[in-house]
Amino acid sequence: MSDTRIEETMGDCVVRLEITMSQAIEEDFVTKFMAKDTGKKFTKLPVVMGQGNTEPKMGDAVWPQVNCMYIVFCTEDQSQHVVDIVLELRSVYPNEGIACFKSSAESY
Prior knowledge:
Blueprint: H1 5-10, E1 15-22, H2 26-35, E2 42-48, E3 67-74, H3 76-92, E4 98-104
Antiparallel strand pairs: 1-3, 1-4, 2-3
InterPro entries: N-reg_PII/ATP_PRibTrfase_C
């Protein structure tokens, strides 16, 4: 049987966003994210290593920086606010990595 708690608070459409970013810009992201009232349902992974379109973030002696990741569950409207934040931060910090992946989600 499906757990409808998320649907009860968000309506029929639940969106899952995975936002991976350099820890260097996390504070700016969180400030904007909370101001847009999208930060009610999320999970934070504080240390995420890997490489995207910028320098590797491996947390070692060669590549000392690391990323963080937020997994957010929100409505379609709220997801657009988050995408706007990601695009804004990408233009403000072109040399820091930030990516957002969007998919639909179901609660069980």
